[in-house]
């Protein structure tokens, strides 16, 4: 008797229904509405500026990133969207491939300064499996970018890994940050993004905030959407959400920055004091070396890294 093997392809995912959010941009302080809509297989994640005379689509690609000061900004032609990293991180963490994000201004709302509101929105809309295999970028050999020397050194690298994990080290000489863990490793197959990473908020220091405001930046920022510290302590009444919230937010940012490449990575990312600029440089370095990666699908979910078939099980 012939043995029957049931193979389940690891499928692409989009949303089941439309969902909306309203908030303010961290830097612009401008009110903005987001509408998250299901998108067909192989669309990827596409921002659509619906406030312009003609709507403009901005697809997620490494080369769409045109500014990395303070946040990751993507653009097509003259149309841009700033601060995409937190919503992109939520999409990466929940394994969402295809999505239209209609936006009414040039900056994603900051909401609570973490990715948890986006996780809640996406989970509320539900997940739809699609009739196309998920395509991954599998890293085949190490790729690294470095900047500066001595106290200014920063680097980020990708190594081959059957799964996706991130290890990040920050180096802030501040008594509050010093008192917390400055290094953390998160493995998507083992940890839970929504529980372990998504709630970590962006952070800043009162001195910097005053300077940024004088430059017309961080106009929407405050204690509701960032951890704010003076020279000695955290000013937020509720304190920290995680003991090591700072480094966890850097991992959250890195997941978002890397997901801009358009497909999930199969790699081990590690970084020391990296940021939006270096994360994007790392993607470009990877794509510039065609022998450093390949595109793969899993015709049998059992061959995918552990947990990848169920990453969105909480949906
Ligand atoms: Zn951030």
TrEMBL record:
Pathway: Glycolipid biosynthesis; lipid IV(A) biosynthesis; lipid IV(A) from (3R)-3-hydroxytetradecanoyl-[acyl-carrier-protein] and UDP-N-acetyl-alpha-D-glucosamine: step 2/6. GO terms for cellular component: membrane. Its EC number is 3.5.1.108. GO terms for molecular function: metal ion binding; UDP-3-O-acyl-N-acetylglucosamine deacetylase activity. It is an enzyme of class 3 (hydrolase). GO terms for biological process: lipid A biosynthetic process. It catalyses: a UDP-3-O-[(3R)-3-hydroxyacyl]-N-acetyl-alpha-D-glucosamine + H2O = a UDP-3-O-[(3R)-3-hydroxyacyl]-alpha-D-glucosamine + acetate. Keywords: Hydrolase, Lipid A biosynthesis, Lipid biosynthesis, Lipid metabolism, Metal-binding, Zinc. Transmembrane segments: none annotated. The active site is at 276 (proton donor). Zn(2+) binds at residues 86, 249, 253. Its cofactor is Zn(2+). Catalyzes the hydrolysis of UDP-3-O-myristoyl-N-acetylglucosamine to form UDP-3-O-myristoylglucosamine and acetate, the committed step in lipid A biosynthesis. Belongs to the LpxC family. NCBIfam families: lpxC. This is UDP-3-O-acyl-N-acetylglucosamine deacetylase. It comes from Pseudacidovorax intermedius. The gene is lpxC.
């Amino acid at each position: 008797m012939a043995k029957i093997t049931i193979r389940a392809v690891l499928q692409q995912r989009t949303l089941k229904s439309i969902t909306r959010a309203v908030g303010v941009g961290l830097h612009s302080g401008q009110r903005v509405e987001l509408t998250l809509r299901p998108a067909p297989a192989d669309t990827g994640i596409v921002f659509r500026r619906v406030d312009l005379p003609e709507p403009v689509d901005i697809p997620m690609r490494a080369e769409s990133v045109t500014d990395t000061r303070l946040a990751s900004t993507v653009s097509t032609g003259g149309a841009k969207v700033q601060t995409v990293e937190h919503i992109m991180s939520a999409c990466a963490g929940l394994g969402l491939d295809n999505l239209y994000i209609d936006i009414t201004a040039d900056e994603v709302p900051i909401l609570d300064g973490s990715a948890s509101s986006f996780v809640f929105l996406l989970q509320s809309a539900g997940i739809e499996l699609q009739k196309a295999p998920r395509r991954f970028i599998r890293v085949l050999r190490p790729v690294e970018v470095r900047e500066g020397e001595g106290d200014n050194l920063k680097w980020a690298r990708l190594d081959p890994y059957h799964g996706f994990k991130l290890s990040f080290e920050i180096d802030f000489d501040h008594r509050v940050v010093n008192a917390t863990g400055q290094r953390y490793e998160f493995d998507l197959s083992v940890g839970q993004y929504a529980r372990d990473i998504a709630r970590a908020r962006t952070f800043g220091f009162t001195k910097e905030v005053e300077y940024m405001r004088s430059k017309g930046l961080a106009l929407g920022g405050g204690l509701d959407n960032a951890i704010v510290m003076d020279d000695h302590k955290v000013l937020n009444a509720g304190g920290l959400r995680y003991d090591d919230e700072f480094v966890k937010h850097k991992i959250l940012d890195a997941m978002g920055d890397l997901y801009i490449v358009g497909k999930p990575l199969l790699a081990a990312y590690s970084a020391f004091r990296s940021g939006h600029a270096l994360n994007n440089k790392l993607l470009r370095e990877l794509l510039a070396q065609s022998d450093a990666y390949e595109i793969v699908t899993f015709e049998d979910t059992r061959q995918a890294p552990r947990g990848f078939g169920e990453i969105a099980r909480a949906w």
